[in-house]
Write a structure and sequence with these properties.
The complex is a heterotrimer of chains A (295), B (290) and C (126).
Chain A lengths: L2 H25 L7 H18 L4 H20 L7 H21 L4 E3 L2 E3 L7 E2 L3 H4 L4 H24 L1 H11 L1 H6 L4 H27 L1 E2 L6 H14 L5 H16 L7 H15 L7 H10 L2
Antiparallel strand pairs in A: 1-2, 3-4
Helix pairs in contact in A: 1-6, 1-9, 1-10, 1-11, 2-3, 2-4, 2-9, 3-9, 6-7, 10-11, 11-12
Chain B lengths: L1 H32 L6 H19 L3 H24 L7 H22 L5 E2 L9 E3 L2 E3 L1 H23 L1 H11 L1 H6 L4 H27 L1 E2 L3 H16 L4 H22 L1 H17 L12
Antiparallel strand pairs in B: 1-4, 2-3
Chain C lengths: L1 H16 L5 E8 L5 E10 L2 E2 L4 E7 L12 E2 L1 E2 L5 E7 L4 E10 L4 E9 L4 E3 L3
Antiparallel strand pairs in C: 1-2, 2-3, 2-7, 4-5, 4-8, 6-7, 8-9, 9-10
The chains are: A mainly alpha (295), B mainly alpha (290), C mainly beta (126).
Chain lengths: 295, 290, 126
Amino acid sequence: MDDYAIGVLTNIALFSFIALSAYLLLIAGEMSFGQQAFFGVGAYAGGILTTLYAWPLPLAALAAMALGAVAQFLVALPTLRLRGLHFAMATLAAAEMARILFELMHWRREIDGELAGPDGTQGFRGIRWIFEHGIEPLHYLGIVGVLLALVLALFLMIERSKLGATLRGVGLDPELAASVGIDVQRIKLGVAAAAGALAALGGVLYAHHNTYIEPRNFDIMLGVHSLAYALIGGLGTAFGPLLGVLLDIGALESTRVFHGYRMIVFGGLVALVLVYRPRGLLDERTVQWLRQRFS
Amino acid sequence: MIADLVQNTLDGLSAGATYALLALGFTLIFGVLRRANLSFGPAIMFGCYAATWTHVNFGAGLLLLALITVSGAVLAGAYVERLCFAPHRGGSAIAAMVASFALWMQFEELATLIMPRHLYAFPLLYEGDPLALGPFTLRIDALAMLGAALAACLALWWTLYRTRFGLAVRALIEQPAAAALAGINVPWVFVRVFALASAIGGVAGYLVVASHGQITPMLGMWATLKGLLAMMLGGLGSLPGAVIGGLALGLIEAHTQWYLGPQMRDLIAYLLLFVLLAARVPWMTTRSAS
Amino acid sequence: MAKAALLLIVLALPLLAQAQTPEAQLRCESTGQDFVYDCTLMLTRFGRPLEGAQVTVGADMPSMPMAHSVRPARARPGLKPGEYKARLDLEMLGEWAIKLRLDGPVRDLLVLHYEFDSKGAMPRKR
């Protein structure tokens, strides 16, 4: 496989993590404009741990996920009873605050005679754990792919379980869910923590793939893109967000067919598809139909 | 000290005037449609770029550029309304808002395709020296902005309180169900509200670009963020609130930037919004999104 | 003899402590075709030109991570020692993070920031 294909596939896999995190919140009924913040938290935390404190990547990734979960939990706690645009704006405000905090963060240590670590708006360069441990791009793609597959398997298991039905119930009608005894607040907090961990996992993997991160990477465009991918792909299955990412980064971008005006095409496509399928291509009805056809 | 306070207040009010206009545009759309239009800023940017293109290729006077900006914004707004909001009326709010974001991406790429450079000069509103009033300086263009914003607000007030259309808009904002039952042609009002909001946004955009003397593709996102922030600060869905929110945002920004720098300025604005939302301050939750 | 050895060791210590990361400078010119640039890379290490490296040049946009798939270009050696040439096909104008993968005598990863306009590229201080 050539470098280009490896690069594209890795980007697709990495973006899928944050798209899935937006998707998780969407099926629980919340639209978040802020997942990019937790992606960034994972990226910075993971990068700092491996680069400045020589933690092994797997451990750093776990720590990054935990931090992402805590961060999103802390944002969700005061905003539990917000819905719709109010909730979205709260997540946006929190995410922009996080980005500005990244701009203000200077955490430098001397490693091998050179200063390393996040340097505010200058960014955080030299996240070389992958490189220093001789992991080739193809191997890294394998690692990221396996992790994504595990996440998808987890999603599919939950979707078929009672928890999955509960989540969707809360998403569609929280009042009804509460009236049948579901602790809506606890569900929402749990979903928030899981989404934060998921985005953070994507972030730490992204940071090590790119070897360089800066606050600008984690701005609103990333967050709203992930939301768009999740919605256009479809809210019926965890493969929906993947489809969204594949459509844009995979099909439109890599085939270079729409070189130079891909976003015009993709944007128009999203708006058009949503007219006929407001819950995406692989929406609940389509997934149901597919299950019946192939069961 | 006092001089700084007054100067910052003056600067803050003139910036706040543009924010107020942006917030008014957002609020008109939100108040009537109960959805946020994420393409509001980008549509304005489309109008501004249309004017820039005209200026770069043909050269044009201030008034003509203002007209082009407003017309461009209204045209772009109509496109957004048709594709993102009309199809989802009564349907999914999330789909409408995500669709509006998708069109935002279109506008941004269109801008970079037609005008590929990152920065273009735009004719300044006023090229002379600022007025000196004792220890304070008053920029003429800041005065012009305040004046234009005031004029736009008056025009809006007249439209809302002195025309049948305005009555329909207010009815839809206050009592949507009753208004529909009373026979108001809701889709007709929606389309016109969108045009009105886009026009106001166009005025705001023109003022911003003409006072800075330059335009970049970041204008779209900037206008959307400031408009949303100002709208939410002033109380979602309230027109007077939009004006107050805009002015307040301008004042808060001017003062925090002076004492704490640009990053703290933004941080504090977002923190304030977050805290107000989390505290579920009553004026912020008067109207919820459907 | 011992003194000479000691002197050598003392002189060599700064070399050991010094970072071994190569330094790179990029010069790009537009080929006239939309967003395609001919780039000349100058690699040095310890102040001397770095020859014989296999260089792959990739690019990503800081403001839109993972969104662009620029085909990585294998650089071929240029005329001068330490010089490498590559053709970059970018998607749009603006600031790009150029990623250099070095293989061969030196293995390393460098990230440089350049602002690309219609004529060429200018370094961005980061």
